[in-house]
Amino acid sequence: MAETIGLYVHIPFCQKLCHYCDFLTFEDQDDVIPQYVDYLIKEMQLYQDRDYILDTIYFGGGTPSHLEADLMAKIMDGIYATFKVTDDCEVSIEMNPESVTEEKIKTYQAKGFNRFSMGVQSFDPKVLQIMGRLHSRQTAIDKFHLLRDLGCDNVSIDLMFNNPRQDMDILNRDIDQAIELNPNHISYYSLMIKDNTNFQRWLKAGRIKLFDEKTDRDMYHNIQDRLSQAGFNQYEISSFARDGKESRHNKKYWQLENYLGVGMGASSNIDLRRFTNTRRFKDYFAAIDQGEMPVESSEMMDLEEREKEFIMLNMRLRKGFDISVINQRFGIDFKEKYKDALEKHLNYKVIQIEGDHISFTDYGLDVGNQFYLDIL
Asked: For residue range 204-244, what is the model confidence (pLDDT) as tens digits?
């Protein structure tokens, strides 16, 4: 029986690794790209008998726009040859400004891409420099306008706050510029120090320092207020969108819907099974050569685990979730099962329940971790 799911495609290549990044990506490995593309298509073909219908496709990385246009076209041809794709499928690609070209955009459009997400992070030269970004403020602006000039009507930009060298004034200038560009969607993330990154090494050595938690929250609230005033709807902790421009693919993650991940390190969520591909080229190629899924780890979860995961992921959404949905999906009485935790956090005004609906309050978005702990 046919099933409608999302597809994530991982492209683990970059021109240069950023100083904060711990994603699975490689620089100076461009000679492997053509082979990797061929094996991506072979991996997808291993799922050909599953009768999947795709209503979202998301290319992430790494930097998918680092690939030459003809290779991206080849991957999309492989997707169309392997899976059924809905007429209104949301097809997204992550891009970095320095790798965006007119040829690539036109190729993307010809192959069905209709959502373009550009990693800007900041418009400030000093912040971009310490982050290790290759583009300049002007390059980001110029490439955004290029997308618009070529008819891209669903453009998202990624920004980051709480960066070294970024005070509130710089943050406000970043927001000013973002609002002036008027994208359809903005993802705004707080910097997190990840293991084995330059930022972690520099922090330990005292070369950089981070803002305290209060400043981080002040920045976040400023972002919320200013983007709201500019007409963006915050629909998830880090996501702001114009009406009708929410990321359909990302909402699959937060609503615990099924999705398939292909490519090295890609994760999948199918019913009660969660599995992740190998992170090594050699193992990835070898498994596919043997006609096997290149899966490195797999976990079968029980309904109880899934239920708690459903709560935690859905509460990332500003709208939360309908209690009747979780009751029906997991066969529980949510209000009775979690009575103590709900009463406690209602009293502290961390959550709000209106009729059949539960969500975090504005205050709860900042302190929701304790609610999760009590649910677990």
From this structure: 999 998 888 899 999 999 999 999 999 999 999 999 999 99
Return mean pLDDT, the chain: 96
Q: Which residues contact 263 (CB under 8 A, 6 or more apart)?
A: 8, 9, 10, 11, 12, 36, 40, 43, 277
DSSP category for residue 263: S
DSSP 24: S
Residue of 256, 232, 227, 228 whose CA lies nearest to 245: 232
User: In the structure encoding, which two tokens stand for residue 13, read together?
Assistant: 């290549």
Sheet containing 357-360: order of strands: 321-322, 357-360, 351-354
CB 265 within 8 A of CB 24: yes
Q: Is 159 exposed, middle or buried (0-12, 13-18, 19+ CB in 10 A)?
A: buried
pLDDT single digits (tens) 242-297:
999 999 999 999 999 999 999 999 999 999 999 999 999 999 999 999 999 999 99
Q: How far is CA 74 from CA 101, 195, 335, 368, in A?
A: 18, 35, 50, 44
Residue with tokens 């290759």: 134
Cα separation, 327 vs 54, whole angstroms: 27
In degrees, rounded to 5, the angle at the alpha carbon of residue 174 between the alpha carbons of residues 172 and 179 is 95
Rounded distance, CA 158 to CA 316, Å? 18
Which candidate, 3, 32, 5, places its Cα nearest to that of 263? 32
